[in-house]
Design goal:
By secondary structure, this protein is mainly α. It has one domain. The chain is built from 4 helices and no strands. The longest helix has 22 residues. The chain is extended, with a radius of gyration of 19 Å.
């Protein structure tokens, strides 16, 4: 039985399988047309997501030349905080 490190491995295996099945990327699905979702709040939620995407695109950080490095630094920080919290429980 594994302790704590199996979930990341399973997640990585699942992502690898998706990448194998869809080498050009996962196709986009329209909830109403492709999946038959008829939820009344779906259109409202979709409009809110679109509005948020516009705000994110207009944000000054979106055009920052060092965005990739900033995101890598954020990811490293999140990983180290996760392990710090996990080790604190021992």
């Amino acid at each position: 039985m594994c302790r704590g490190n199996c979930q990341p491995n399973l997640c990585l295996q699942a992502v690898a399988e998706v990448e194998r099945r869809f080498p050009a990327g996962v196709p986009s699905l329209e909830p109403e047309a492709d999946m038959g979702v008829r939820e009344p709040g779906l259109r409202k939620a979709a409009r809110r997501v679109e509005a948020m995407e516009v705000l994110l695109e207009e944000h000054p950080l979106a055009a920052a030349p060092d965005l990739a490095e900033r995101l890598r630094a954020l990811q490293r920080k999140q990983v180290s905080m996760h392990w710090r919290d996990a080790c604190a429980s021992f």
